[in-house]
Target: Acyltransferase family protein
Amino acid sequence: MVARRHFVGLDGIKGLALIAIILYHCEQSWLPGGFYGVDVFLTVSGFLAAIGMFSRLKEGRGIGLERYWPRRFTRLYPALVLMIPAVGFAAWCLDRDLLVHIRDQVVTVALGCYNWYAIASGNSYFGQMNPQLLRHLWFVSVLMQLYLVIPLVAWFMHRIRRTRCALLVPLAIAVGSAASMNLMYTPGADPTRVYFGTDTHAAGFMLGVALAWIVVNRRVAVGDHLPWIVRARRVLAPLVAFVAAIALIDMAIRGEQGADAFRWGIPLASVLSVLLIAGTVQTDSWMQSQFVFRPLALLGRYSYGLYLWHWPVWLIVAATLPRLVPGKGVRLWVLPVTLVITIVATAMSWILIERPAARGGISSIIVPGPGSTWRDVVRAVASCIVLLLIIGGGVVAVRDAPAKTSVEVALERQAARLAAEQALGRKQVPTPRKPPHTMPTGDQITAVGDSVMLASAKGMQEVFPGVDLDAAVSRSSFAGFGIVSGKGAGLRQWVVLGLATNGPIPPEQLDQYLAMVGPDRVLVLVNAHGDRTWIPQNNQLLAQFAASHPDNVIVADWDSAAAANASHLAADGIHPDGGDYYAQAVKQAIQAWIDAGH
Model:
């Protein structure tokens, strides 16, 4: 019976996908396309969720909702009951900034709709200002919603099986979902809506459903009547799967969070995933041996727990370790420490919570069933104690969660101070332009930037008294156009732009900024510091642009200055925590440019 068959190699596939996701979340520059691992997981999940239903329907036993719903519930929720309060209490003890909006996160995760809450509330998956502790659970919410839909899809496919159109149902949904992602994506805008949306990110899951239908029905439809097709499939399917695996690895290594990913990359990853699964689970496929490597298979077997724990643990470790162990090299230890804690927490969750729930239901977590051994009793007592302590700590964390992060509070104060100064007329009137080959004073500088410049406003004003500074939270390079053009003739001799943090900069924008500034002014471009994939690309683009316009374009290396003064950054590792390091980076870049004879 297909439903009871163990599909060799699926754990290895999930393990490989998990590695990509963890590296993408924790060290994005190492694997910028690791987010494609999510689509591999979705495809595997659709395949496994549907194949049991199709087998039961084929045997005339019905969908089996009385078993399906409890199994889904006991697979997803018990681990969440332990993980959420545990990481919440850890954040309460170590870095309360991570608890902002935690109440809403907990409620929407429990209801299985966190992804839609994040979309409605504007909590960007790609934002850095306030990385939500439970942000990665958007994927779990999408799965929960798709698990609700799949019984209806399976029932309808079975009802129309004799029309030979059943396979078109999941394929049509997959195509519609991919098309929706393509059409709804807007270049330059926050892509969270198309990435988090269940409607726009269901292609991989539905392709997995389609594969499950083929696997359950192929013996009758194909095997007995067209043996040459069976032989060809057995030869070609593993080869196709191997090529698909290489393509997925290449996409994970070279992928980017840009238009290509949302228009064709994610649908392509879903197609490659279904080809990989199809060629691997096939009986006697040589691809199975590639995914039975025990460490890889173990990662896949416990992938759910590892996925749940790794993101909040990384956030807590990244915020805490540099404070506990000062030094330039400490950030190299963040990922290893994160992995160790994640593995230990996953093992504890599996032993105390998940395995008992899977074997005997939710009640078995704290009440051993008939025939239990003394070890089961000890485990149940330990589970009760751990749950009581952790849930109590989680309640305290939710109760005491701050409304805003310390960085947000500091930035709001800076913005209010700047607005008050401008309202009181303290902003100095531009003085006549001076030759650009001497160090400018503040009354010769217009500075336009994002939250990093806003956090550095006091330092900029101290180093360049009288600077015309306009900075705001979440400002992108697109938003800067209106600010610069709005200043018109009031634009000063030196124009400092710090807009590289919040998204990729299209190359043509730099030409447009330079045209707006004009040939008689000097453009100072401040690069960015952070772990987003676009930041290294932005920094390289700024350096290349300055090199091609040496007479009136300068790059201020804030990235190096921030790395050299990591202990003086805020908890998010992005914004300066006071000081004039940002301003000094601008001043040093200008001085070096002047000293070079420009």
Observations:
- The beta strands are 445-449, 468-471, 494-498, 522-526, 553-556.
- The longest helix spans residues 65-94.
